[in-house]
Amino acid sequence: MDINGVLEKLHVIDSENRHLARAQSVLRWDQETYMPEKGVQERADQVALIEGIAHERFTSPETGRLLNEAGSTSENPGGDERLSALERDFLKTLRRDYDKAALLPGDFVTDAARAEGLSQAAWVNARQENDFAAFLPHLTKMIEFARSRAEYWGWKDNPYDGLLDIYEPGMGQDAITAVFAPLKDELSALMKKIAAEPRVDDAFLSQEYNVEKQADFSRELLKRLGFDTERGRLDISAHPFTTMLGSDDVRITTRFYPRQLLSGIFATIHEAGHAFYEMDLPHNLRGTCLADGASMGIHESQSRLWENVIARSRHFWEGMFPVLRSYFPAALDGVPIEGFYRAINRAQPSLIRVEADEVSYSLHVILRFELERDLFSGALNPADLPKAWREKMRNFLGIEPETDADGVLQDVHWSMGAFGYFPSYALGNLYGSAFWQKLNEDLPDTDTLIAEGNFAPIRTWLRDTIYVHGRRLKPPELLKTVTVGSLSPQTFLEYINSKYTGIYGL
Amino acid sequence: MDINGVLEKLHVIDSENRHLARAQSVLRWDQETYMPEKGVQERADQVALIEGIAHERFTSPETGRLLNEAGSTSENPGGDERLSALERDFLKTLRRDYDKAALLPGDFVTDAARAEGLSQAAWVNARQENDFAAFLPHLTKMIEFARSRAEYWGWKDNPYDGLLDIYEPGMGQDAITAVFAPLKDELSALMKKIAAEPRVDDAFLSQEYNVEKQADFSRELLKRLGFDTERGRLDISAHPFTTMLGSDDVRITTRFYPRQLLSGIFATIHEAGHAFYEMDLPHNLRGTCLADGASMGIHESQSRLWENVIARSRHFWEGMFPVLRSYFPAALDGVPIEGFYRAINRAQPSLIRVEADEVSYSLHVILRFELERDLFSGALNPADLPKAWREKMRNFLGIEPETDADGVLQDVHWSMGAFGYFPSYALGNLYGSAFWQKLNEDLPDTDTLIAEGNFAPIRTWLRDTIYVHGRRLKPPELLKTVTVGSLSPQTFLEYINSKYTGIYGL
After folding, report:
1. Which chain A residues are closer than 8 Å to B41 by Cβ?
2. Alpha carbon distance A87, A69 (integer Å)
C-alpha cells in the first residue's frame, strides 16, 4: 500500500476511536444529568462494553502494522520525514495513544470502566449521606485500578508519576514539587498577611437567591461571552464538568445553591472556559486525535483564566454587575460595585476547593497532590484519608471540615479514578497567567474590552495563539511557542500579589 | 464444549447486542431531546458506527457456529428438545434475530443508520418549515433502504410484506387488508352517523392552557398511574416516543401546546402505556432478547389501552377531573364532568392522527397503510405523496390539509425508515379490546378501580397475563393464550359502537 493509503486507513481508525469515545461521553453526560437513579448498573455495563470494544479495535494488530508501515515507531513516532508536519504530528500522537492503549489488557479496560461508573454513582450517594465508609471500597478499587494502569505502562516503582503523565505529559512528581513548593510558601505567606487585615464584607452573597434566576443569569452570561448554543448547552449536575459529545456538541454543567450566589455562576464561567477551547479548535484538526487540548493543565489554564483573571476582575463587573443587579434587585440594589468586587475576591481559608478564592485555591490543590503522592507511595492507607485530610487542612489553612462531605468526599475526581488530575488546576493558574501576560502585550487595553463586554478579540487571540495548536504541541513546547518562557510560578505570584495588595491595601 | 457452555456464550453475545442497542437508544433519545442543533452530523456518524459494530459482532461466524452447536438451525430454531422451554424460546428468538441480521451486509447497516439520523433531523426541519421538497430526497432514500432491507430478507416480489413482518411477525399485506376492510367500512359508517348528530361542544379545550402547568399535571398523572421515576423519566421532544435505555431506565417523551389541552396529556398516557410494558417485563427474561414486547401491535395495544379505553373513559375522569381542574381553575371551573367526558371523546374528521378520536383514528392508520402499500408496489411515486395524501384524506374523512406539515409530514415514522409500522396502531386497538374484555372477566368492577384511581390491580393483571411472556410468544399465540381467540375487529367494533352510542345517543 502506498503511504497515502496507509495514512487514510489510520485516519479511519483514529476517527472511529474518537466517535466511540464521544458516544461514551453521551452515556456519561446522561448519567450525570438526566439518568433515572436505578439506571446506573446497566449504564455501567454499557459504558464498559463500549470501552472494551473501542480498546479492542484501537489496539488491534492492524493499527500497529499500519503505524509501522507509515514509519511510525515508538522510537521515531513521527514517521517518514518527507511527510507534512501535520501528518507527522498526527502519527506522533496516534503512536503515543496506541502505545499507551496497547499496554492495557482488554479485560482490564472493561473492568475499570464498569467499576468507575459504579464508583462515581456511589460517590454521589456517599457525599449526599456524608458516608465515607460506604465509598471506601470503591475508592480502594479505584486506587488499585490506577496503580495497575501505571504499572502496565511501566511505572512500577513510581506509579504516581505514571498517573501524572496522563494529564500533564512529562511532569512527574519531582517537577511538580519543584513548582509547588515556592507556590505553597508564597501563597501561605500572602494568606497570613491578608488574615491580619480587616475582613471584607460579603454577607450579602449569602442571601436567598432564586436558583431559577441564577440559571437565567448564567445563560445570559454565556450569551454575552459568546457561547454558541447551537453547538453546546448548559445543564445541571452534582459536579460541574465540560464534555465534548462531538466537534459541534460541547456541553457544560453547573449547579446552583440558593444561598451561594457565586458558586453556580463562577462554575458556569469556569466550564465555559473549557468549552471555548474545545469549540474553537481548528477545523483542519477536526476528527483527528490532534483535535484536543494540549494537556489538562493547559485546559485548566483556559477555564481558570475566564473564571478568575477575567470574571473576577473589577472591569468585568463594570459591565456585568448592572445586569446581575437587574436579576436580583432586592438583594443587590444597595451594593456598590467596589463592594461587590471585593466580596467576590475575599480571600479566606475555606473548606471547598471549587469555592475557594484565588489565593488559597492552589493550596487546596497542593493538599490533594500530597495526599495522592502518599496514597501511591503506600505511606497513606485509603481508610485513613479522612483523618489525613483534616490534618492537612489544619496545617495548610488552619481549619477543619466537620463532615467528610465537606472534606475528602467533596470532589468527583477520585471516584472516577482520576488520580493525578488535581495538579492540573494549579498548573493551569501558572500557564494561564503566562498566557495572559502575553495576550496583554498583543492586545491593547484588555481592561476596556472586558469592561465593555467585548470578549471577541480575547477569544480570537486565544483561538489563534493557543487553540490553533490543538494537541500538536506538548505543554512545554506550547508555553515556549506562545510566551518564549518556561513553567514558573513567578508570573502568577506577581499577578496574585498585585491583585490582593490592591484589594486589601497591603 | 458442553451445551451449558454454549448457551452461556450465546447469552453473552445476546446481552452485548442489547447493551449496544441500548447505548444507541441513549444517543437517539439525546438527539431528540437535548442535543444542540449542529451536533446532528457527528451524532449520525456515531450512531452509524455503533450500529455497524453491533451488527458485525452479532453476525460474526462465531454466533452462527454457537447456535448450530446448540442445535438451533433456521429449520429447528429451538434446538435440542431436552432444553428448558425458556432456553428453547431464547434460542428460537436469537436464531430469528441472527438470521435476519446476517442477511444484511455490514456496510448497508451502517449506511442506513447514518442516513436515518440525518433524515430524521431533516424531517424535523421540513415539518417546521412545511417544506416537503426539502424532505423528499431523504424520504426517497429511506424508501430505498427499506426496500433493500426487505429484498435482502428474501421478499423480492413483495417487499412491503417483508417490512410489515418486522413489526407484526406473520401479518402480511393480505392478512392486514382482511382485518382493515371491515374496520374501515364500519368506522366510516359510524363517522357518518355521528356527523348527523349535534356537535359536541369542546371549545373550552382550546383556551390558553399554560404549558408548564400541563407538564406538572402530566407528571402528577404519571405518579397516580404508578410510573416509577426512579426507573424512568418524562421529557419533551418534537414527536412523543418511548425508549428503553436499560431494564431500569425507560423514558417517555411528550410535547405540550398552549391551546390544545388534550394533546400533551394523552400523549403522556399513551407513552406511559408503552413504558409500563417495558418496565414490568419479567425479571427472568432480563438482559435477554426475550425481554421485549411481543410485537409493535401488542405494544400499541398497551399504549392505546391506557390512552383510550382507560383514560378516555368517564370513570377515569371521575377521579382525575377534579385534579385537572385544580391546575386550571379559571378555564375548567364551569365545565361539568359529563361535558368534559363528551368533549374529550368528540368524534370528528381531523387532520392529525395523534389527535384523532377513537372512531376516526384507525382510518388515519388505514390511509397510511394504503399509501405505503402503493409506495412499495411502485404504484405511487414518493414525489406524489402530498397529492395522494390529500386525495385519500378527502375520501376517508372528507377533509384536506392546507399544509404538508398537517398532512404527509406530520409523522416521524417514514423519516426513520419505519415503513410497515403504522398498521400496528390499528392492530393495537384490536388486540387491546380483546385483552380488555378478558381483563374485565378476571377483575371485578374495573370501572370502580379506575374511578378510584386504583390502577395497581390493572397493572398487575397486565403484567402477569401479558408482559410475563415478553417476546416468548408471537402475537397470535399470545392472543390465543390470553383470550382463547384470534385476531378480529369484532370486539373493538362492539366497544366503539357501544361507547359512541352512549356519547351521541345514536
Report:
1. 248
2. 14
Distances (CA, A) of A301 to A308, A313, A358, A428: 10, 16, 13, 4
pLDDT at A56: 96
In order, the DSSP letters of A446-497 are HHHHHHTT--HHHHHHHHHHTGGGTTSS-HHHHHHHHHS----SHHHHHHHH
CA pair distance B59, B53, nearest whole angstrom: 10
B-side interface with A, Cβ within 8 Å?
16, 19-20, 22-23, 26-27, 30, 34-39, 41-43, 45-46, 49-50, 53, 57, 229-233, 235, 245-249, 251
Sign of CA pseudo-dihedral B68, B74, B79, B81: negative
pTM value is: 0.93
Place of cell 479522612: A386
What digits encode the pLDDT tens for the residues A191-236?
A: 999 999 999 999 999 999 999 999 999 999 999 999 999 999 999 9
Q: Which of A389, A420, A426 is nearest to A407 (CA)?
A: A389
Is the CB of A235 less than 8 angstroms away from the CB of B34? yes
**Inter-chain touch A39–B231, beta carbons under 8 Å:** yes
Q: Count CB neighbours of B157 within 10 A.
A: 8
Q: How far is A33 from chain B (nearest CA, A)?
A: 11
Chain A, nearest residue to B33 by Cα: A34
User: What are the phi and psi torsion angles at A234 (to 5°)?
Assistant: -120, 130
Between strands A249-254 and B242-246, the pairing is: unpaired
A153-158, long-range: CB within 8 Å, 24+ apart, which pairs?
Answer: A153/A100, A153/A103, A154/A103
pLDDT digits (tens, 9 = 90+) for B180-202: 999 999 999 999 999 999 999 99
Closest CA to A495 of A323, A291, A313, A321: A313
CA nearest B21 in A: which residue?
A46
Based on the residue annotation, tell me whether B271 is a catalytic residue of this protein. yes
Of the candidates B287, B273, B313, B228, which has an alpha carbon nearest to the alpha carbon of residue B466? B273
